[in-house]
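User: structure tokens for this one?
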Amino acid sequence: MLLRELFHNTDRTNSRAVFSLLVLWVGAAACADAAAVPVDSRNNSETEVVAAASRSETSDLGALPPAGYAWVIFGADTVVAEVAATADERAQGLMYRDEIPDGTGMLFVFQDSQPRSFWMANTYVALDIAYLDPAYRIVDVIAMEPLVTDSYPSDAPAMFALEVRQGWFGEQEIRVGAQANIVFGVQGR
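Assistant:
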């Protein structure tokens, strides 16, 4: 209850720090009730994801992100990422979005590891993409510009790609070789 009140009573400039703290707390607490919360993965705000996760304050241990989401954790930095695991979800990606809030993004999941390539058609927000190998290690980070239809290929085979707001990886000092931990949300969305 205290963390929920802190989040709602914190001004916008401190909300990122509180959000990060809340994500870490939820990771140590429980999140079983969050699985039952209907979440529209295409129109979620950072606040809605936090609210869904924070409903589990009294649940059993064994925290998981909400259905259709993953926590991509780099040390003390966590991205709450929508998961794009099907061909249709990967093709849609972050197209037609007007903003990507700090601490959020999209994790693209593939069935195998091979050189990957993304473009920015119909994508209005400048993004960074980190390509990750099957062990969740970053093999490449590329800044991508809005509406560019040229491709942004990976330097090495990748099984995952994480898109976030442009500049986020640099601000967090997350570079090629960084190791992530990925916690996938409950299945069956």
